[in-house]
Amino acid sequence: MAETFEEISPADFFYRNRDIAGFTNPARAIFSSVRELVENALDASDLAGVPPEIYIRVSYEGESGPEAAIYKLMVKDNGSGVPARHIPSAFGQVLFGSKFKLRQTRGTFGLGGKMAILYGQITTHKPAYVTSSKGTSKIHTYKLMIDIQRNRPIILDRKIQANHEQWRGTVVEFYLEGDYFRAMPKILEYLKQTAVVTPYANITFVDPKGRLYKFNRVVTKMPPPPRETLPHPHGVDVETIQRLTRITECRNMLDFMQKHFHRVNENIADRFLKFVETMEIIQEIEQKLTKAEMGPGKEALIQEIKQRLIETKAPEEAEPVIKEVERKLAEAGIPEAETLIQLIRQKLINAPQSFKYKNPSKLKPHEIVKLVQGMKKFEEFRPPASSCLSPLGEELLKIGILKELRPEFVAVCQREPSSYSGHPFIVEVGIAYGGEIPRKNDFVLYRFANRIPLLYDEASDVSWKAIKSINWRRYKITSDMPIAIITHICSTKVPYKTVGKEFISDRPEVNREILNGLREAGRQLKRFLSKQEYIEKEKKRLTVFSKYLPKIAQFSTELAEKEKPPDIEKLLRSVKTLEEGD
Amino acid sequence: MKREIKSSAMERKREVLTNLRGLGVRLYGQMEEGVFPWIKMPSRSIENIFYSPELRQYVLGEKTVRRSARNIRHIRPFTQLVWGAYFAHELARNKKTSTLRDVYYSAQAYDIPFKDQPESNSIITDLETVAGFAREDFNVFPEERSAIFGDLTIEYTVPGYEGKQLNLTSHPDGVLIGPALTSAEFVKTSADKVIAIEKGGLFTRFIEEEVHKRFNALLVLTAGQAPRATRHFIHRLNKELSLPVHVFTDGDPWGMHIAMVIISGSANAAHLRELTTPDAKWSGVWATDIVDYKLPSDDLTEVDVKRLYELQRDPRYEGELWQREIKTFLRIRKKAEQEAFSRYGLTYIVDEYLPAKLEAAS
Question: Is B54 inside a domain boundary?
């Protein structure tokens, strides 16, 4: 029996696998649609550098089966706007504009609202409307559908209006099947939590019953927008290199490394390529030396040989280096030193063409694999710079928490930048106490990644693990106190555990930063609680004195058969002043 | 037989009032000087209780405690104490009496809450320590059970009865030793001794058999362990009327100790005086009586034996008689009740035993 193979387009793929993108059922679908479009809108404002004005409307359009109805979803922003010629592709073609640069963005899939529009089209067979302007003299409106099999936008209609008011932004409007009333709690929770990490945004939401929810801006200061950055060599895979070699204009590997990777200069590129060339020899030497019976100088010797080999730039420099290595090996009494030297000679002098002069576009598959292996092993790449990241910052995080959660006290902590597998990240943590924070049997956890709330699979998240591993008693904190914990990780690549992208995996680097952040915030809260406790105790003290001292005075007066009680005001005052002086 | 009687009840009441007023004046003065009121009193902790061979009772040592209203932990009990003094003063001034239970509830009227009865009891004990008077002197009495019968004429000082006299033979059940009797003045008596009896049955038998006449005695029913008011009353009978005191109890370690508390007092009352009658005599039932009179007896229990060993080491039991009797108990391992004499007939105890014991005592 012959199997039939067919190629499917990305749109088709997502159509068939919509579960993983969060469109499992009508309730989840409408939640995901709102979420995708809101995140798109916020990203657009970040890019434009203006405090976001987001308007969301869900309106009822008719029945559709027992558990779902047809709704119209409209999301409007004041962001950068989409250039007219890109509108059809940006909203009607899945995986449009594959980038080789990285940026901290909100969208969970890089699909933006396309998945939502695709879902809407599947369930209602109605087109989507996209209106956008970059603040120029024109406003463009497209009526679109997606050709799912070919992954192409179909432009049904197109209008151009004059933009007299220099409006800038994007409006997306489409129909979809959903179950708003089951999704409502999640949508409201999502918007509320979004407001926590976006205190500089005005978010307005009108639901199908005409109810208005407003999350008001309380600050106009915005965090600096995230900047695009090149991938770090530690974080790339074979596929990425392959694609890069196809599009690159570089003619040799030395340029290639500098042009397409994060924080790679000529010196590092040169050393790295040499490292890749000599990797096998070094490995072999290491193996041999590891087996050899040698004193404590072994590690140092391996390091030295490594350095020597990498620093040898031209074949003519090689001979003295080989002599030197030979002598060292002989001194150490390594068997098979002869074979090793042969190998080294071959690589350094007889190499047909040094790696660094190779044309990237002509790399053979095994060479690409070797390159990627080398990237993982080479320890001299500089750590990824975090300057491309856009954390919220302690001030804004505090403002956001105070605004939406209304606690009595909040402690925040932004950790120093760190990285995992070549991806920079920054962890921010907040602990809110008292006020309107509910008192439950456990802490309330709010998780954020790249400034979007994560609402599902909380128990599996690295944040819970970190919270559970802390001995909170040390901070005078118990789980029955009204406490909310806020964790935010921003990164060019958030380490989600699953395709669902709802929880963050337990990377030791991430776990450590969250732990340290929680500890620091915990210490702040402890100081606050201690102070509270002290004030409380003082109040009680004063109450005790002012309750009992007058009675002592009264009864003593009666006993002593005096006319009027003694003056105890001075004594009461002294209690107060004494304590202040303590 | 008549003699001049030096009575103390009224005088003592005046002393109590003066003492309490003095406390008020002291505290008032401290506050007027801008000082947090404070008091100093002997410590009642176990390591400050000593047996005084001279006084033949437990006394408190040199250690004192200072309570100050400046101390957050002291101010509440301090206030309670001052209130207690005020309340006692009011009782004494108005010639009213009260009980420990009553004190506990009365406090609530003054917004002086006690968290429980033991707390209020302990404050009254503090007051006793500070003032050096027993709570009965502050007119705070326990529930009464003990009684007296015999030819003693008293004159009441309680409101409504001032000047009224009563002869204590006037009721065949005896007269309750309560607040009114305790505060009464002694007028006259023909008795020349006091016989204290542990049990009600024997007390009634003695009255029936006219022991008071035949032996010229005042009969006091202690009803088990004598209440402090009764101990003080016996003390007064001994001191003011110069009457020797004989104590009859069951022949077991517990009866023996009832006699001892009347004689030498208890450690709990180490802060108080005039509750003891050191010259009183324990007249029986002795362990040696069980042997000599061949009394029907029961075996000592383990608890009895343990108690005997405790008493053997107790400084109050240093005397020859006590040590001899304890040893005899331990040897014969028997105990007998006062009623055991009934095997020889209902009147034997009065006709034979009592005269012999009283004679032996003098």
Answer: yes
Residue B5 has pLDDT above 60, yes or no: no
Is A523 found in the same domain as A467? yes
The rounded distance, in Å, linking the Cα atoms of A337 and A345 is 12
Judge whether residue A22 has pLDDT over 80: no
Q: Are A376 and A232 in contact (CB under 8 A)?
A: no
pLDDT (average), residues A417-436: 91
Q: Are residues B349 and B297 in the same domain?
A: yes
The tokens of B192 are what? 């020349």
Between A552, A558, A566, which is nearest B32 by CB? A566
Q: Are residues A265 and A148 in the same domain?
A: no
Instruction: Give the 3-state secondary structure of residue A229.
Output: strand
Tell me the chain A residues in contact with residue B23 when contact means C-beta distances shorter than 8 Å: 559
Distance from CA of A450 to the nearest CA of B (A): 53
Mean pLDDT, residues A386-407 taken together: 91
Rg (CA), chain A: 32
Q: What is the domain range of residue A444?
A: 394-528
Q: CB of A432 within 8 A of CB of A405?
A: yes
- Per-residue pLDDT tens over the stretch B104-148: 888 888 888 888 888 988 899 999 999 888 888 888 887 767 999
Task: Note whether B17 and B119 are same-domain residues.
Answer: yes
Domain of B37, in residue numbers: 9-141
Q: Look up residue B47 and give its two tokens.
A: 């390591």
How confident is the model at residue A97, as a pLDDT?
A: 47
Whose tokens are 């003095």? That residue is B22
As given in the structure block, the two tokens for residue B37 are 């009121």
Which CA distances in Å does A163 have to A75, A85, A148, A158? 19, 17, 33, 16
Number of structural domains chain B divides into: 2
Asked if residue B274 belongs to a domain, the reply is yes
Pairing type for strands B98-99 and B140-141 reads: parallel
Q: Can you tell me the distance from the alpha carbon of A452 to that of A466, in angstroms, rounded to the nearest whole number? A: 20
Residue A130 has pLDDT above 70, yes or no: yes
Residue A100 reports pLDDT greater than 60? no
B75–A541: do the CB atoms touch at under 8 Å? no
CATH classification of the domain holding A401: 3.30.230.10
This prediction has a pTM of 0.65
Distance from C-alpha of B183 to C-alpha of B9, rounded to nearest angstrom: 5
* One-letter-per-residue 3-state SS of B240-276: HCCCCEEEECCECHHHHHHHHHHHHCCHHHCCCCCCC
Asked if residue B1 is part of any domain, the answer here is no
B306/A120 Cα distance (integer angstroms): 93
Contacts of A300 (CB under 8 A, 6+ apart): none
DSSP A554: H
- Count structural domains, chain A: 4
Same domain for A539 and A523: no
Closest CA to B223 of B146, B295, B276, B296: B146
Same domain as B95, residue B162 = no
Residues from chain A contacting residue B78 (CB–CB below 8 Å): 548, 552
The verdict on a CB contact (< 8 Å) between B75 and A544 is yes
Claim to verify: residue A521 and residue A437 sit in the same structural domain? yes
Whether residue B34 and residue A570 make contact (CB cut-off 8 A), yes or no, is: yes
Q: What is the set of active-site residues of B? A: 105
The string of pLDDT tens digits covering residues A62-77 is 888 777 899 999 999 9
DSSP track, A511-523: HHHHHHHHHHHHH
CA–CA dist A357, A251 (Å, integer): 8
Chain B residues near any Cβ of chain A (below 8 Å): 20-21, 23-25, 27-28, 31-32, 34, 36-37, 69, 72, 75-76, 78-79, 82-83, 85-86, 89, 110-112
The count of residues in chain B is 362
A558 in B contact zone (CB under 8 Å): yes
C-alpha count within 13 angstroms, C-beta hemisphere, residue A168 = 15
Q: Which helix (H) or strand (E) element contains residue B154?
A: strand B152-155
Measured distance CA(A283)–CA(A299) in Å, rounded: 13
